[in-house]
Specification:
This protein is of the alpha+beta class. The protein has a single domain, classed as CBS-domain (Roll), CATH 3.10.580. It is 46% helix and 19% strand. It contains six helices and five strands, in the order H-E-H-E-E-H-H-H-E-E-H. The protein has a three-stranded mixed beta sheet with strand order 1-2-3. Strands 4-5 form a two-stranded antiparallel sheet. Strand 4 and strand 5 form a beta hairpin. The longest helix has 24 residues. The chain is elongated, with a radius of gyration of 18 Å.
Amino acid sequence: MKKVSQILARKGSTVISVDNSATVFDTLKLMSEKNIGSVVVTQNGKYIGLLTERDYARKVILLGKLSSETHVSEIMSTDLPHIAPDISIEVCMHILSEKNLRYLPVFENNGDFCGIISIGDVVNETIHSQKEVIEQLQHYIHS
């Protein structure tokens, strides 16, 4: 059974983050430049939340706030479930589907933040696993 740690290993350890005092506008520019849908929000270098495109749409645009005057700390998501690297991909898929989420922060058992996985990461890993099984079955059939 595939684990979250395998997704993180495949993605690499680079996590894009901003300080909680950053403006939403500057953060959206960064997200656009990096072609990402979420960014980690930190305070004193420690994870405190996640800002997503959904947060922006629901907490800035729909409320008539100005991106240039709103700080990420005002609209970030802080209530996301935390998962560990040893959690299975199947459990992640269940959490993401059940809670209608797109991103999950990953924390070591000691509480240290170690990455973010997305619904896209989970789908890609599932497809990769299915391809491996198909190749193994084809090899078995032909041998």
